[in-house]
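Our consortium's second objective concerns turning raw sequence data into structural hypotheses that experimental partners can test. To show how far this objective has progressed, the report includes one record in full. It was chosen at random from the queue rather than selected for favorable results. The single chain below, 398 residues long, was entered without modification.
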Amino acid sequence: MGLTKKKLLFVTWDSDQSNYLESLFFPILKGLGEAVGLEAHVLQFSWAKPQDVHRIQQLAASMGIIYSQFPIHRKPVAGLGALWTVYQGVRIIRNYVRAQGIDVLMPRSTMPAMMVNRLWDWLKRGKVKVVFDADGLPLEERVDFAGLKTKSYQYRKLKAEETKMLQRADLVLSRSQAAIDIHLDNIGERYREKFLKVANGRDADFFQLDPKSRKQVRESLGLAEGEMLWVYTGSLGIPYEVDRMLALFGRFHAKHPKSKFLILTRQGDFLEGKIPNGLSEAIVVRSGSFQEIPKYLSAGDVGLSLRKFAPSLAGLAPIKLGEYLLMGLPVIASRGVGDTEAQLGTQEFAFFLDPENESASLDWLEGIKDLDPVKIREFGRKEFSLERAVRDYLEIWT
């Protein structure tokens, strides 16, 4: 079937901290526009500050994306405010689809699914295709890491909405085969054909080694060539193996006292009181912008991507892994996270940490200087590039 020009509306629900729109979905939507003439619209429900909304809007416009934001009410209490926002959101989405002539509606995760569920009959009468971005296993993540109880009314209500959308949607996007299998255990094997695994792709032209930046950053950190720099990018918090990463680096640093660990995060406050004694000079925390990440990663020698084990990790596809690999960095990763072991398990530049035998990772680190960054990057382009992600998303129109 030939590809035709479409209007797509991506609907998402966020806090005031998310940056995945600008770093992940905007580039994918831009790539789809270039590939098939797609007119991409984004409707974000969030409680971001006006200056952040303006920044995202400007970025979207520069990429040919039409962006709108609607505030999530937080008063009188967050729960009631969210329900009122959902009530309003149903009308907002309906009016937007009608006014803009939207062909494909893509709700991301549970709250947008709840709003779209209430428009189902109207959408079907208008022949609007619904593509559900299931976003991993978000409810199970909240059970594992945010205290949501599976017997609570909130969980049962949200799970029912998610299940309804999984069954109804014309197509369901997932980041791992493991998550697809879990969803099918819930809703039935007969729905398998409408599930599509898509990559979390990064722009290989943006994420590439810059020797000049490598020299500059390493000099600023007091590192000579040959002295190892560990790097970590992204969020910190309960789901992440922060203590393990710091302890593991501490063991490595005891043997290599000139080594350093650079942590790029907007949540540096989480590290207060957690950095071990004697490592305050060796562990450097920076909070640069997304545009600065390749500069800092250029200086690195190994990238870390560790998560605390939980069943919900089966739905994840860590974006930082793609960033590291495109930069030619070998990686230390956790087991049980999405399909990463299936993708990387036989590669010499990837080490999956065994909590019972952490010494093995230290032995592996001694040999990474002999790895070829060019080959690592070639693998990253094949499995984790923006081109790969856009190619996956093209299945929406077949």
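The partners drew two points from this record. The first strand starts at residue 7 and ends at 13. The mean pLDDT is 91. Both points have been shared with the crystallography group to help prioritize constructs.
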